[in-house]
Design goal:
Radius of gyration: 17 Å
Oligomer: single chain
Shape: globular
Structural class: alpha+beta
Largest sheet: 7 strands, antiparallel
Number of strands: 11
Helix content: 25-40%
Strand content: 25-35%
Strand order of the largest sheet: 2-7-6-5-9-11-10
Length: 215
């Protein structure tokens, strides 16, 4: 679906998900993340970039597992610490994963995906046409109910910083793994909130597309 069509449907309140492909179960087990290998940090930084052309083929389970762990997985199990920082360890950002098979919530413990919508939400994650067919669209959602120690006037900015850290983790992983990615803030907030089924304390902060680069 092209951008103009999405804008028009959004104005009419009719930008909706598609039916999910396949018959996925309620949970998707992920292999243990591989924490070895990859490029040295300075090389990954040198390759970090935004790309907007993606092949439609799905990511292998191990690549998906490593990507999600890099984004905001548990790296210090005894403390419950994550790969991305969070003020006062509020862990206010939930990472949703939109694929052709459904919409999933990444659960860092026990490192798995739980399906929350049996629909293909990808085209609702942004006005750009490439989001419809790229294999993976990430949606970062702040849960303000977990930020009780933060003054209400500052919660949005705190959540934006946390989402930005997760997005940069994704960028660096993609640079190291030869994947393409781009973070995005241009989407129909009302349509995506409705498609995910978010509550009043939840706020979509950022979206990000991941896949193999064309060519």
């Amino acid at each position: 679906m092209n951008t103009l069509t999405k804008l028009a449907l959004g104005m009419l309140g009719q930008l909706d998900p598609r039916p999910a492909a396949g018959d996925a179960g309620p949970e998707m087990a992920l292999p243990a993340p591989s924490r070895d290998g990859g490029l040295p940090l300075m090389q990954a930084l040198g390759l970090r970039q935004s790309q907007r052309e993606f092949r439609p083929d799905s990511l292998a389970p191990q690549v998906l597992s490593d990507l999600l762990w890099a984004a905001c997985g548990v790296n210090r199990r005894e403390l419950g610490g994550r790969t991305a920082p969070s003020a006062m360890n509020g862990q206010e950002i939930d990472l949703y994963v939109a694929t052709a098979e459904g919409l999933w919530l990444f659960e860092p413990v026990p490192h798995q995906l739980r399906r929350v919508q049996a629909s293909d939400v990808r085209r609702v994650t942004g006005y750009q046409d490439f989001v419809d067919e790229a294999p993976l669209d990430l949606v970062m959602v702040a849960d303000h109910a977990r930020m009780k120690m933060v003054p209400a006037s500052k919660r949005e900015s705190y959540a934006s910083v946390a989402a930005g850290a997760i997005a940069q983790n994704v960028y660096l992983f993609c640079a190291s793994a030869g994947l393409a990615t781009v973070s995005r803030a241009w989407f129909d907030r009302a349509a995506l909130t409705r498609a995910i089924g978010l509550g009043p304390d939840q706020q979509i902060v950022l979206t990000q597309t991941v896949g193999r680069p064309k060519g």
